[in-house]
Amino acid sequence: MNQFEYLRPASVAEAVAAASEPGAAFLAAGTNLLDLMKLGALRPSRLVDVTRLPELSNVEQLDGGGFRIGALVRNADLAREPAFAAAFPSVAEALLSGASAQLRNAASVGGNLMQHTRCAYFQDPASACNRRDPGTGCDALTGENRSHAVLGWSNACIATHPSDFSVPLVALDAVVEIAGPDGRREMALEDLYPLPDAHRAPESGLRPGEMVVSLRLPPEAASFRAHARYLKLRERTSFAFALVSAAAALRIEDGRILQARLALGAVAARPWRARAAEALLFGAVPSAENFGRAADAALADARPSGDNGFKIELARRVIKRVLLLAADGTPERMPALPASAFNLENGAVAHV
Amino acid sequence: MTLSISLTVNGVRTDVAIDDPRVTLLDLLRERLHLTGTKKGCDRGQCGACTVLVDGRRINSCLALAVSHDGAEVLTIEGLASGDRLHPVQAAFIDNDGFQCGFCTPGQIMSAIGLIAEAETGDDPERIREAMSGNLCRCGAHVGIIEAVLDARNRLAEDERRTA
């Protein structure tokens, strides 16, 4: 790990000022940052420790039913917050499907949203990576790329965003509140994750010195609570990143879908909102046939970026399954294996 | 620049001068405080051998920067037994063959204590398996480990009933 200067500011304004210097990085729990520093993939010259900043550790229910979550709330604490988990069950399920209990106890909300891709070439400082070192190329294109993107990629970068948490959040129109050298602003969470263009693969939509201070869920996001699920396919049932995941949220009245929300994880550099599929489901009967059509629409533009064509068919099946699960209804209790395909009948386990 | 932090480790308050901000909580425990019960396995948060409780919560000490934990209360495997009397979770690991080589065991035991405190699994073995998935055992003692956690959870619940 490289040597760095350690600063512990007392306010958001001080933190933003300290992080505006070139080479500075924010430190929350550090579960992703320290790992990448040990690998030499990231070499910040200054760490700005934000863990002691006041007022960023609250989960606040807003007038009208929305929620504001401070950037320093720990992943496990948010998933365990009863009012939050009841209003946004697919978000709690996604949180509990990520990492391990130890990591969820440490990792923060802001850190989860700002985590880096798990592309092996990004993590290896000896490899070419336009995302880590702009202009150097992309070794993933001709390398081990079976887990890489099938949507929204370019020859500059085929990495995927690894967060589970952000997938249902994007489906539910979450917003991030940002503090920076020029004051406060907010943006749709989706826009925090730029897609690569022909030459560049920027890591985030933030400007130098800016930090996510809170996450906000709009009041209408809670209207899906009765039919909201997250499903995650991976190479082992626990403590692994998704190969493909999906979050579905439905509003169903009199046997018809009044509103559908759908987002895919691990298929692109951002959580992938499937708006064409959502539109198809408007007014539709919740059936396997209609969900299959929605899945086809969601993947219409997908193409392999390497040895990963199987992810397109996998994504179709995940979408169909997660929509069926959502239509069945949110389980009363969190499934034993959150977001796992091995849960039967809303939480019972098919042990394999 | 030397920074000074204060930690309460296994109930004892300790001031530590940190001359290099790169030191992790794991390295501080092992190299500065000579508490080598906490193990360094992968050093990347993937194996769980370094699990300790910080302010009552289980975390991977290999991915925690020591300077960032000024003022924290840390509990390690060395802080569990009272003299020769083992902590109920330690005793349950012995009684249920919850280990073979023993390298992952301190992390497994600290993780199990964290799990029991979180009180989310009940006595469902599947929930316990899921909640222990951050601790790998290369000897493959997971069956005994899950039995040990179940047994320990029941013993602690029984103790609580008796003292209530």
UniProtKB/TrEMBL annotation, chain A:
SMART domains: CO_deh_flav_C (SM01092). Residues 1-222 form the FAD-binding PCMH-type domain. InterPro entries: CO_DH_flav_C (IPR005107), CO_DH_flav_C_dom_sf (IPR036683), Diverse_Substr_Oxidored (IPR051312), FAD-bd_PCMH (IPR016166), FAD-bd_PCMH-like_sf (IPR036318), FAD-bd_PCMH_sub1 (IPR016167), FAD-bd_PCMH_sub2 (IPR016169), Mopterin_DH_FAD-bd (IPR002346). Transmembrane segments: none annotated. One of its GO terms (molecular function) is oxidoreductase activity. Coiled coil: none annotated. PROSITE patterns: FAD_PCMH. Keywords: FAD, Flavoprotein. This is Xanthine dehydrogenase YagS FAD-binding subunit. It comes from Hoeflea marina.
TrEMBL record, chain B:
The keyword Iron applies. One of its GO terms (molecular function) is metal ion binding. Keywords: 2Fe-2S, Iron, Iron-sulfur, Metal-binding, Oxidoreductase. It holds the Pfam family Fer2_2. InterPro entries: 2Fe-2S-bd, 2Fe-2S-bd_dom_sf, 2Fe-2S_ferredoxin-like_sf, 2Fe-2S_ferredoxin-type, 2Fe2S_fd_BS, Aldehyde_Oxdr_Iron-Sulfur, Beta-grasp_dom_sf. The keyword Membrane does not apply. It comes from the Bacteria. Residues 3-80 form the 2Fe-2S ferredoxin-type domain. PANTHER family: OXIDOREDUCTASE WITH IRON-SULFUR SUBUNIT, OXIDOREDUCTASE, IRON-SULPHUR BINDING SUBUNIT-RELATED-RELATED. This is Xanthine dehydrogenase YagT iron-sulfur-binding subunit. It comes from Hoeflea marina.
